[in-house]
Amino acid sequence: MNNIVVFGGSSHPSLVEKICGNLGIKPSQVKLGKFSNGETSISIGESVREKDVYVIQSGCGHVNDNFIELLILLNACKTASASRVTAVMPYFCYSRQPDIPYTAKGAPLISKPKETYTFESVPGTPVPSMATTQKPRVPSDGPISSSNIDNTTTSESSNLEHPEPVRSSEGGDLHKSPSQSRIPMVPERKENSSELGSLFNANNAGYKLWVAQAGTLVANLLTTAGADHVITMDLHDSQFQGFFDIPVDNLYSKPIAHNYIQYNIPEYKEAVVVSPDAGGAKRAASLADSLGISFALIHKEKRSQLPKGPPDASLTSGGGAAVSGKPLIASVSSLALNSQEMRSSSSSSRYVQTTMLVGDVRNKTCILVDDLVDTSYTITRAAKLLKDQGATKVYALITHGVFSGDALNRVSMSAIDKIIVTNSVPQHKTVKFMGKDRVHVLDISQIFGESIRRIHNGESISMLFELGW
Amino acid sequence: MATNAIKLLAPDVHRGLAELVAKRLGLKLTDTKLIRDPTGEVSFSIQESVRDQDIFIITQIGSGVVNDRVLELLVMINACKTASARRITSVLPNFPYARQDRKDKSRAPITAKLMADMLTTAGCDHVVTMDLHASQIQGFFDVPVDNLYAEPSVVRYIRENINFSEAIIISPDAGGAKRAAALADRLDLNFALIHKERARANEISKMVLVGDVTDKICIIVDDMADTCGTLAKAAEVLLENRAKSVIAIVTHGVLSGKAIQNINNSKLDRVVCTSTVPFEEKMKLCPKLAVIDVSAVLAESIRRLHNGESISYLFKHSPL
Questions:
Q1: Measured between CB atoms, which of A41, A48, A94 is closest to B41?
Q2: Same CATH fold, B151-292 and B6-149+295-316?
Q3: Angle formed by the axes of helices B151-161 and B295-307, to 10°?
């Protein structure tokens, strides 16, 4: 390995060590620190003139500090006459769009952080309500039918115990920890109209709230700093590659995930790969295809609901027609907003969030697949829905386990039996918190090491997308 | 129809200066919302249309989480750009990373240049700053940079608050000699210089005074006070040389690290900083701190920029 220089940022030193170990070289000398006023200071300890430089920095920890550190490192290498500078970002920060759900008025819906978590109540999993009782039962199959009844009764009781879904916004105490959520938390109540007014300018009635995204900006900043090439893994949107004017190699964790499932999940051929939202369906389906097993999908949607009639009646979408063995459509309603509020705010249009499981998971092992888990609301909610629908065991397969805020707490209290996560973001906290039995960390250093080797030597890296890795 | 009015934007922290500027211009700060996710990523929303407007983003960057402030600013600029603003002017009284402006050793980053490139990349059309550490930083930009001076405000402060007939202007290092000499000329005062040998960043070594300060009120003038080690040491040197008292006037009071402790323990009578950097909470801890308000200069420059008038008047005169 001639002429190669690998620098590690301060975000993930152990991954840097591992990648360099795979390359058979040592990480190059670089001093990272801060001046007393908080500005980042770096000093590079080796010559990089006419070298092929790789800077490894994951978008974790204190994201902005680490990102600017990466930019300064790239820029320092570039101005020190490096022949090529490659940014290696196992987890690409700022790659996803925060989803802000809107009410009919244009105000974002509120998610309320909870203080304590229990298996049942958190994370406000949509509980199967009356609609589920209309599911087709199998008359010839006694035990399943009875378990079905048991299941619905228990879920009904839990419904009674927890009549309020988590998404309800009911009090004025919502803005106590705005940093806990990606969504600006504003109670949609009349007495808090000043709060609302600060978010939604009443004088600009025609102007719809709009949140700027940093995607292109981050891409442009990397290019500006001098990056000639970017290597990353499981980008949240593959369109992100198009934001760059430089080549972006998006690696996949699928081969190692496939490998793990094949050798570590007993009777994986009977398991079901589940995507917790429609956006991840493609990713989950391709994993299911390569494993040759079946696939299910959890679909959340917001529907306009008719003002009259019972809430659930309009939501049973053809579930009754399904026959045994065919995919069930369990239509489960969870009120997106406090219903009283909705009535007070608008009488004609009501929105109800429905969560549907498309596919059969009864008595099966489920493998939830997601690329990124941050607040963990989606995945823990999905896990509970799967258990409610009769799944025996729920694995969660995650590429980037960011687990911000109290996500780890939520995950450890959730229905997820085992988490399989890559080390694109440091996972020692996860392992410590959840215990070694419930967490398995997949090592991605080999993939990154090999891709760096191949890119350095000008070889193809498409082989890394295939199995065997 | 396009009105092309001024829109003033500020991040959600350290809005003090921006609010003063807005008040002076008779405007209100535009309603904005910075959304931080728990990992620190920010996204930004503007509650009014900014299409075809003249945007001024006033950001005070002090010590502490500099990188967060920088990225927030970039996201804000980019948000305005993608929202079809006519012109985006970044008002950065204290330019971040201004001291990283040259390759002082092998492979050192020129972060000031990187900052300039990043601002331009984000979509900044114009930069207004104050007392750049090195005015050459203006050359790092491909967009116009207006480097305002705190000097007129400082002159006013000295005239109003210090018995300046017995005063002498001191430059704490050779690099600041030009700035100190200019101020001394304006006030028709004498001028002395302290020569120091700096070992490493944020550390000081021995100091030599050039000039006579006997029985004088010494006014140390510098562009930036960081840990204030230099200022404290300079005050000692001056008092050893029979100075009457020592006052420091600094443009950017970053005051990081042990600055408050250093000032409190030093022989400085007073440390006066302009309001380019927010340090209100530090003033409570340190009675020796005083502030020169520069919001008038910034407000006037914004007004002139918007109307396409000359800025150079502000280089010599301090608006009320």
A1: A94
A2: yes
A3: 140
Across the interface, whether the CB atoms of A211 and B35 are under 8 A apart is answered yes
Comparing CB atoms, the residue among A48, A79, A179 nearest residue B103 is: A79
Contact A31, A46 (CB under 8 A): no
Count of CA atoms in the C-beta half-sphere (13 A) of A114: 17
Number of H helices, E strands in chain A: 13, 16
Read off the pLDDT of each residue in A119-131 and give the average, rounded to a whole number: 44
**For residue range A211-245, what is the model confidence (pLDDT) as tens digits?**
767 788 999 999 999 999 999 999 888 788 888 99
Complete domains list, chain A, with CATH? 4-94+214-252+445-462 (3.40.50.2020), 130-168+254-442 (3.40.50.2020)
CATH code at B6-149+295-316: 3.40.50.2020
Are A408 and A429 within 8 A, CB to CB? yes
B84 CB within 8 Å of a chain A CB: no
Burial class (CB in 10 A: 0-12, 13-18, 19+), A375: buried
Q: What percentage of chain A has pLDDT greater than the value 90?
A: 48
Kindly list the domain boundaries of chain B, sorted by start residue: 6-149+295-316, 151-292
Predicted local confidence at residue B141, as pLDDT: 94
Can the peptide bond before residue A108 be classed as cis, meaning omega within 30 degrees of 0? no
Mean residue pLDDT of chain A comes to 74
Alpha-carbon span A17 to A7, nearest angstrom:
10
Please name the amino acid found at residue A331. Answer: S
Distance from CA of B233 to the nearest CA of A (A): 18
B40 touches chain A (CB under 8 A): yes
- B252 phi/psi in degrees, rounded to 5: -105, 105
For residues A443 and A420, is the Cβ–Cβ distance under 8 A?
Answer: no
Is A217's CB within 8 Å of B67's CB?
no
Query: pLDDT higher for B207 or A99?
Result: B207
Tens-digit pLDDT profile for residues B200-249: 666 656 788 888 999 999 999 999 888 898 899 899 999 999 999 999 99
Q: Do A221 and B118 touch (CB under 8 A)?
A: yes
**Minimal-distance CA residue of chain B relative to A210:** B45
According to the CATH classification, is domain B151-292 in 3.40.50.2020? yes
Name chain A contacts of B41, Cβ cutoff 8 Å: 63-64, 93-94, 214
What ipTM, to 2 d.p.? 0.86
pLDDT computed for residue A464 by the predictor: 83
3-class DSSP assignment, residue A425: coil
* Closest chain B C-alpha to A43 CA, distance in angstroms: 6
Q: Could A76 and B107 be called an inter-chain contact, meaning their C-beta atoms sit closer than 8 Å?
A: yes
Q: Which residue has the higher pLDDT, A111 or A71?
A: A71
Q: What is the pLDDT of residues A333-372, one digit of tens each?
A: 433 333 333 333 444 445 566 778 888 899 999 999 999 9
